[in-house]
Write a structure and sequence with these properties.
By secondary structure, the protein is an alpha+beta fold. The chain has a domain at 113-321: monomeric porin ompg (Porin, Beta Barrel), CATH 2.40.160. Helices cover 22% and strands 50% of the residues. It has three helices and 15 strands. The strands form two sheets. It has a twelve-stranded antiparallel β-barrel with strand order 3-4-5-6-7-8-9-10-12-13-14-15. Strands 1-2 form a two-stranded antiparallel sheet. It is elongated. The termini are far apart.
Length: 322
């Protein structure tokens, strides 16, 4: 009997709790706004806060709209600032460089080397020569006016024996750089000797081939179908930073026999030798050397009877530039 009464009371209490929980869950998930308790005196009262919550939602929406407006304003200002910075006249007040009431005369403070014009003299060989016909001198060099890309050259090569000019050449050339290591040249060439002078138009090139061989080649075009070809190849071998060995070869050829100049058709002359110089300074270097001269074909046939087809030249000279 007692056990039955206790079980009935437990079932009754459990049902009430479940019903309260169900009502509380429906109350919070429905359309109604939960009531908030407030302490008044010693007791508790409940009031509906729907009005306050709506006001809070409206205020949040207004804040969000204001933030979006501020962000858009900052973005637009940033775009405007960037556009203004890209405009070179945005902050100049209408003035430009070297203009305005207080502007000074415009002066460039930096001038690059390839924008300047230089003058120089280069004497590649100025030497005394001892050979079979006696003693003589040889000179080869050039003066130039221009910059790194375009130059006007006055080039000369003269050989004397016993105080008289045996062979000479003078070139007036325009030189232009066509690559970092090559120049192309064109102009006038004048050759002269003991018996005759010749005028030629000339075109050629000068530069460095692989392995640092310096090449200077020229083709001369004369009257009556005359042509001449001249090729020089040099190499500089640094034994030390100041002691330099320079092998050199010079080849000349002609298309026609020219008795007055003493030149025959075909391969005419080959000079091959070496010079050892000591550079006290890059601009001042004395040297000594030896050179073999070989004449071929008709050029050898035109030599005087007392002359040899092959000669050995001992040289003592000076190389300088400024």
């Amino acid at each position: 009997m007692t056990l039955g009464i206790v079980a009935a009371l437990a079932l009754s209490l459990n049902g009430k709790v479940i019903a309260q929980d169900s009502d509380h869950q429906m109350h919070h998930t429905g359309n109604e706004v939960p009531e908030m308790p407030h302490a008044v005196g010693s007791g508790m009262i409940y009031e509906n806060s729907a009005t306050d919550t709506a006001d809070d939602a409206a205020q949040a929406a207004m804040n969000h709209e204001q933030m979006n407006h501020d962000a858009m304003s900052h973005s637009d200002m940033a775009v405007m600032d960037v556009d203004a910075l890209r405009d070179p006249h945005a902050y100049s007040g209408g003035y430009e460089r070297a203009s305005g009431p207080y502007a000074l005369a415009s002066q460039r403070q930096v001038v690059l080397a390839d924008e300047a014009t230089f003058v120089g003299v280069w004497m590649d060989r100025f030497e005394f020569v001892d050979h079979g016909d006696g003693q003589g001198t040889e000179m080869e060099g050039f003066a130039w006016l221009g910059n790194s890309y375009r130059r006007l050259l006055l080039q000369t090569q003269i050989e004397t024996v016993g105080g008289e000019v045996e062979e000479g050449e003078v070139d007036l050339l325009y030189s232009r750089a066509v690559s970092p290591f090559w120049d192309i040249r064109g102009g006038l060439h004048h050759s002269f000797g003991e018996n005759a002078d010749r005028d030629w138009a000339t075109i050629g090139f000068k530069g460095l081939v692989p392995y640092w061989f310096e090449v200077d080649a020229a083709l001369h075009l004369g009257n009556k179908g005359r042509t001449a070809f001249d090729l020089e190849v040099e190499y500089e071998l640094l034994l030390t930073q100041r002691l330099v060995l320079q092998p050199r070869i010079d080849i000349k050829a002609f298309s026609q026999k020219d008795i007055e100049l003493g030149r025959g058709s075909g391969l005419s002359t080959i000079k091959a030798g070496a010079r050892l110089r000591y550079e006290f300074d890059r601009q001042f270097a004395p040297y000594l050397g030896v050179e073999r001269v070989k004449r071929f074909g008709e050029t050898a046939d035109l030599l005087p009877l007392s002359s040899s087809r092959m000669e050995t030249h001992w040289v003592l000279g000076l190389r300088f530039w400024y």
